[in-house]
Amino acid sequence: MDNVFNSFSIIFNCIFCLLALTIFVGIFIRTFRGRFSKTIESPAVVVNMQRYEKEIYDHSKGVPRTKTECVVTFLCSNKRISFEVSEYSYDSFELNQEGVLKYKGSRFLDFQTQN
Predict the structure, then answer these.
(1) 74 with 101: CB under 8 angstroms?
(2) Can you tell me the distance from the alpha carbon of 72 to that of 82, in angstroms, rounded to the nearest whole number?
(3) 51-80 pLDDT per residue, tens
(4) What is the pLDDT averaged over residues 98-112?
(5) Contact at 8 Å (CB) between 114 and 57?
(6) Biggest alpha carbon distance in the chain?
(7) pLDDT at position 54, please?
(8) 3-state SS string over 7-72?
(9) How far apart are CA 11 and CA 94, in angstroms?
């Protein structure tokens, strides 16, 4: 009986360690992929704009508060790319607006319109 328990314990520990390692590697790759990827500039068109209001609980104040998330989708090289942007940036975009999109990994950097 002890032999079965020891085998189960070893298998469980191996599975747990593999799961923990997979999570750690995933977080590591996601964190550093955006920091070390190259900056890309490409002509793009604004094809979609969405604003979300989320109610989140503020633990420091003990009350819920509203958070606004703004997402802008660009058509860039026949590929749709979406970025979360600030409210200030969001208000400066218009649908079908053309310009040069500048981004790094999954991070929006700039969008310059062609006047």
Answers:
(1) yes
(2) 6
(3) 999 888 877 778 888 889 999 999 998 999
(4) 91
(5) no
(6) 79
(7) 87
(8) HHHHHHHHHHHHHHHHHHHHHHHHHHHHHHCCEEEEEEEEEEEEEEEEEEEECCCCEEEEEEEEEE
(9) 56
